[in-house]
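Shape is hard to put into words, and the shape of a protein is harder than most. The fold becomes a row of whole numbers, each drawn from a learned catalogue of backbone shapes. The outcome of that step, for a single protein, is printed below.
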Amino acid sequence: MTESNEPDTPSEPNTTESHPAALRLERRADQQIWLVREGADDVAVRVRRPFPWSMPGQYFSLCDEKDNEVALIVNEGDLDPDSRRVLEEALQETRFLFEVEGIEAIETEFEIRNWKVRTRQGFCTFQTKHDEWPHPLPEGGFVLRGIEGNLFHIPDLDQMDEKSRKLMWDFTD
């Protein structure tokens, strides 16, 4: 039997919690963020905030180009100052939060859902994976991540018009 660093199954990501000396984040000339770990190949990553978002400064998932989690930063304070700056810049780049005021249509094509919504910023169309569902928020309402990484806040359904409530019915309990 040969040893492998690969996970046994796709459902077991090869994750590592952060330790200050164990990992570093760098933004390189290609403008990508790179995860640098002692004894491992450097990996281009994207920063994701897993749910819940109730603990700012904690829990940041670093995902490779296949969207597999390759590391988990438990607390940004554990990072060296340069890595923390790179993390904060990455979060700023991905923090597009649109406030949804109404839903015009939700259409499914193959493995994609097309959402047509009214936001404070105007009309918008975005896509989600077919298996991406709105996440309920403790204070009410939902948040949904589009394929491009933007976030869409859907308020408490009682605040929305009847058409929007009907369209959201299949996505709520």
About this structure: The chain has two domains: 23-93, 97-171. Residues 45 and 65 are 7 Å apart (CA to CA).
